[in-house]
């Protein structure tokens, strides 16, 4: 609430200063007010006006810690070379620095150039989940679904979307993605073993819930 009070007070002071000191003509009052309100709207969108003021350390960047193992799994299942690979490497580098928002924005820039690349959509979904601290947001959900729509036979989109669903507590949906993927994975592969173990845990949890 404090943020709104400060922002509103500044808006009034700036308006008075422009009229009394800057001597803005009456004909320009509407344009000036519109510009000030646009700035206030930008503050409401980008800032957190509803939060009380409190000091924060500079190192507090939010988001989840970079998951190196997850990135290596993605590189093993998805394309690691070519134009998509370059965007993903840059995003990973920013993620390691804790710059989760920038890591997602890099992939968004890549998608503007190549909007039909499933690997970029997959990486974008992972980056959004990391930026949200592990939460599967609607934007991340859309990114995963878009990746699967472009590459329906690829293992990576189904694997990582299932992982995000499982972590979000949507166990049945995760199992529905992982079961056919595990069945088609090469015998003895690490991916098959991991998926089968995850499915077994999901079955045990679902069975416990049904009791």
Overview of this protein structure:
The structure is a single chain. The protein is mostly helical. It folds into two domains: 2-45; 68-209, Serine Threonine Protein Phosphatase 5, Tetratricopeptide repeat (Alpha Horseshoe), CATH 1.25.40.10. 72% of the residues lie in helices and 0% in strands. It contains ten helices and no strands. The longest helix has 20 residues, at 2-21. The two termini are 46 Å apart.
Oligomer: single chain
Which class do the helix and strand fractions yield? mainly alpha
The proportion of strand residues reads: under 5%
- Quick one: overall form? globular
What's this model, at a glance?
The chain has helices spanning 2-21, 29-46, 68-77, 82-96, 100-113, 118-131, 138-150, 155-167, 171-184, 190-209. It is mostly helical.
Name its key features.
10 helices; Cytochrome c biogenesis factor; transmembrane; membrane; globular; 211 residues; mainly alpha; transmembrane helix; Serine Threonine Protein Phosphatase 5, Tetratricopeptide repeat; 72% helix; TPR-like_helical_dom_sf
Draw up the topology in text.
Elements lengths: L1 H20 L7 H18 L21 H10 L4 H15 L3 H14 L4 H14 L6 H13 L4 H13 L3 H14 L5 H20 L2
Helix pairs in contact: 1-2, 4-5, 4-6, 5-6, 6-7, 6-8, 7-8, 8-9, 9-10
């Amino acid at each position: 609430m404090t943020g709104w009070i400060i922002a509103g007070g500044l808006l009034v002071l700036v308006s008075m200063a422009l009229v009394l000191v800057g001597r803005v003509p009456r004909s320009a009052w509407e344009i000036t007010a519109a510009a000030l309100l646009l700035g206030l709207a930008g503050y409401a969108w980008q800032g957190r006006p509803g939060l009380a003021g409190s000091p924060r350390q500079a190192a507090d960047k939010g988001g989840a810690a970079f998951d190196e193992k997850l990135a290596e799994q993605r590189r093993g299942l998805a394309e690691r070379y070519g134009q998509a690979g370059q965007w993903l490497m840059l995003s990973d580098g920013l993620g390691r620095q804790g710059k989760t928002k920038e890591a997602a924005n890099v992939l968004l820039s890549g998608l503007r150039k190549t909007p039909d690349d499933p690997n970029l959509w997959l990486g974008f979904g992972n980056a959004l989940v990391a930026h949200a601290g592990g939460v599967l947001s609607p934007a991340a959900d859309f990114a995963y679904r878009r990746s699967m729509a472009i590459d329906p036979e690829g293992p990576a989109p189904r694997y990582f979307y299932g992982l995000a669903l499982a972590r979000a507590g949507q166990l049945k949906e995760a199992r529905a993605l992982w079961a056919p993927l595990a069945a088609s994975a090469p015998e003895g592969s690490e991916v098959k073993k991991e998926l089968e173990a995850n499915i077994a845990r999901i079955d045990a949890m679902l069975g416990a819930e049904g009791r």
